[in-house]
Input
Amino acid sequence: MSTENTDTTTEASTESDCGATSAASTESKCGASTDTTDETGSKCGASSSSSSSSSGCGASKSETTDENVSAAAADFEGEPGRLVAVGLGPGHAEGMTQRAKTALLEAEHIVGYTTYIDLLPDEVVEQADELYDTPMCGEVSRTEEAVDRTLAGNHVAIVGSGDPNVYALGGLALEIVESKGTTPSAVDFEVVPGVPAAQSCAARVGAPLVNDTVTVSLSDHLTPMADIESRLAAVAPEGFTIAIYNPWSRKRRENWERCCDILLEHRSADVPVGVVHGAGREDEQVEIVELGELKALGETDLVDMTTTVLVGNEETYVRDGRMVTPRGYESKYDY
Ligand SMILES: C[S@@+](CC[C@H](N)C(=O)[O-])C[C@H]1O[C@@H](n2cnc3c(N)ncnc32)[C@H](O)[C@@H]1O
Output
């Protein structure tokens, strides 16, 4: 197993607004290059030899942005391998599904954000031929790398926290497969689900989300904040419980404050809110607060980019340290 860590950023990168910073693109081990098989047996590269980077296999990726398309399917010789998008769940080995673990043990190459690669169980790391990780904001180059490695004949898992369908790379992987002129069937594409943060965090504070729930991401990297605000303003008056992802970073402080203001315009200040930082990780912190207290928490360690915030509805209450959102049975049955 060889590990390729391209993380050249500091902790601050997790609070970046994701500009065009890609440390990964110049260090790719797999792209449009001569077809080789290394000593691990992994296949790397396609038949084209054009290269503009320092990659060992000659990836044709820009050194300044992660938005470039590299090799196309036609550049690769031989049969493609398999591509699976695997959700790791909250971050501890016990929180991973058995199917996810099996999928990772079967993969030859595992590709992911550095933090998630670091969360992989030891046996998965030992079993893999290659690990390829990039810092946050390398999503496009990382996913291209995973697809290129697949087109070069490898069995590749691209990993992320929670579930691949929740603010994650499942869709991007399919878009890039298509942009390279191939099909999901050709690479035997599969999504392996994981427990999303909303659910793993909800479990830490009781049962806050048992009815209709809306998820909102405050990351304005891909969706303009004005759109996020209008969506939040549309759902806040309704009875939905709300799971807020990507709640706070230094650059998104105003998004957080605006979100709290919108919620308070439509819900009572004493509505319970579960705040879960790093569920299932070493630095986990869990608190249940009232909506009126929420905004100020943005300035504490509790709320950052590894926090999920669970906002109750007007029915939600707290008993013995647990949030309870009634399911509605009490209106039909005596208990
Ligand atoms: C890019 S989204 C990925 C979501 C992920 N695919 C899922 O299904 O949960 C990242 C956000 O997920 C939430 N998150 C991920 N892991 C978490 C954890 N262990 N504890 C609390 N929140 C978490 C945070 O809101 C974070 O900003």
